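ok so i was messing around last nite and threw this chain in just to see what happens. nothing serious, just curious
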Amino acid sequence: MRKNNSRIDMAFGSFRRNRMAMFCLWSLAVLYGMAIFADFICPYSYQDEDRNYSYCPPTAVEFRDHGHWVSPFVYQRDLDFDAVHRRVYVTDLAKKYPLHFLKNGRLFTVDAPGRCYIWGADARGRDLFSRIWYGARISLSIGILGVAISFVLGLLIGGIAGFYGGWVDSVLMRLCEMFMMIPGFYLMLALRAAVPENFNSVQVYVSVVVILALIGWASLARIIRGMALSLRERDFVLAAKALGFRI
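result:
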């Protein structure tokens, strides 16, 4: 007996068969996972700094010592200046700092004064690897919250327009067209200009989310409205109307 799958099952089945879509899904899952568990994965806090390591290049993790395999460690690196006063970091082979795993609630770390900068350090000696993944929490959450708000607005307005039709549909679709006729870049600049400069970081974060939501909801609303209009003409809806149900 053939199993009757719902439209949701068919949609997910088609999605799973698309290799590029699955690759993107797992890539996003890794990025969001790294951002969520940044406190555990990153060796330092985003505020941890050491001015002695300003603009330090990436640290090499060593696995061999005098030709023998050993536990991973890093060498001490000291800041110096060359003949033309450029920053250079000199490796001190006499000072080694072993990597500690699952210590102090971190995946890996080294004892002070040793430092392990996987992707280097910024101007104030802060670990770029740690700061990128801590910052990813803000960047990735802005995108998903903006899409969520845009989806709710598009679903609500498009659903109302498609369900009621008539003048309600006309008014809501003209509103959507007003947003769609403005290029997204200029609309974003106009909305950002309306945000006061004295906002704190939380208020700026909310403002950016709202701006992104207002840019993308109109096109989604038109798609939802078209789907609602097509559903109104389906056989089961016409049959319900013929039976006297008010739809």
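not much to say yet. The chain is about 55% helix and 15% strand.
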